[in-house]
Design brief:
By secondary structure, this protein is α/β, with parallel strands linked by helices. Helix content is 46%, strand content 13%. It has helices spanning 16-23, 29-44, 82-95, 105-119, 125-128, 153-157, 168-174, 188-193, 197-222, 227-241, 248-257, and strands at residues 5-14, 54-64, 70-76, 99-102, 150-152. Keywords: Exonuclease, Hydrolase, Nuclease.
Length: 273
């Protein structure tokens, strides 16, 4: 494993102001989202909004430093507007050059970050340079799907074939991890409306944790981690989460879902959880 590692995920809502401007809609805010969804369905047959109209309300990450220490963090609308969330996240890459890990990050998270950073007039060469500034990034940059500076697990595990893409929740459950923990539907807009900031960040960080656990299993598959190293990383993750009160539910459910596969059934045997 090339350290440091940054596993990340974003949560978004529809940017109603930009959508109204794009489609020249003069409607009350309460009607805008339905109008934008209807227009999107007419264009594509799906409610999923075009990437440039996804306003970022949370970016969460798990940072693993060179010594193996873990730190979960979130930048959310509780304290920051979208431009500030982006500045804080992008500044990480000005100081460090981690291995970036995501689930569907190549098709969703990074393009959304790119569009929204441009919308706010931000600069992020450390993340988006493809060799124009640093010539070494011609051969290993965060945007090339075949490089390992950014590992989109959904993409690499599908062997870069879109027909084989899988949902994070499904793969997490199959491998003995918590997944969405019973969450049905997408509740982020409701979390924002009700100012349920802890639920928002816990939801986003939960996706990050599932991605991290799948990542180390993938490294085991590829022979980049030994079985013992993989076991130690799992145990380190369990011990770290014991210090994170907001993820007590994640840990509790993980202790149960781990019993669903033979490989993970012993993960919590040595734990006092």
């Amino acid at each position: 494993m090339r350290l440091p590692v940054l596993v990340f995920d974003i949560e978004t809502v529809t940017d109603l102001k930009s959508g109204a401007h794009l489609y020249q809609l003069d409607l009350p805010e309460a009607d805008l989202e339905q109008a934008l969804m209807k227009l999107r369905r007419q264009d594509t047959g799906t409610d999923f909004q075009r990437l440039a109209l996804h306003e970022i309300v949370c970016i969460s990450g798990l940072w693993i430093d060179e010594l193996g220490a873990m730190k979960l963090f979130s930048f959310s609308r509780e304290k920051f507007n979208e431009a500030e969330i982006l500045r804080k996240f992008l500044s990480i890459f000005d100081k460090r050059h981690p291995t970036l890990v995501s689930w569907n990050g190549m098709q969703f998270d990074l393009p959304v970050i790119l569009f929204r950073a441009m919308y706010h007039g931000l600069s992020a060469p450390s993340l988006f340079d493809q060799g124009e500034i640093d010539t070494q990034k011609r051969y290993n940059n965060y945007q090339n799907r075949y490089h390992h500076r950014h590992i989109d697990l959904m993409d690499v595990m599908a062997m870069f074939n879109g027909r084989h893409f899988q949902k994070l929740d499904d793969i997490a459950h199959l491998l003995g991890f918590p997944g969405k923990r019973g969450e049905v539907g997408y509740h982020v807009p409701e979390y924002i409306r009700l100012q349920q900031w802890l639920r928002l960040t816990s939801y986003c960080e939960g996706d990050v944790l599932n991605t991290w656990l799948i990542y180390i299993r993938w490294l085991l598959l590829k022979g980049q981690l030994t079985s013992e190293d993989h076991r130690l990383w799992v145990q380190a993750t369990i011990e770290y989460l014991k210090t994170q009160a907001q993820h007590a539910e994640f840990l509790e459910i993980w202790s149960k879902t781990s019993q669903q596969t033979t490989f993970t059934s012993s993960d919590f045997l040595s734990s006092q959880y």
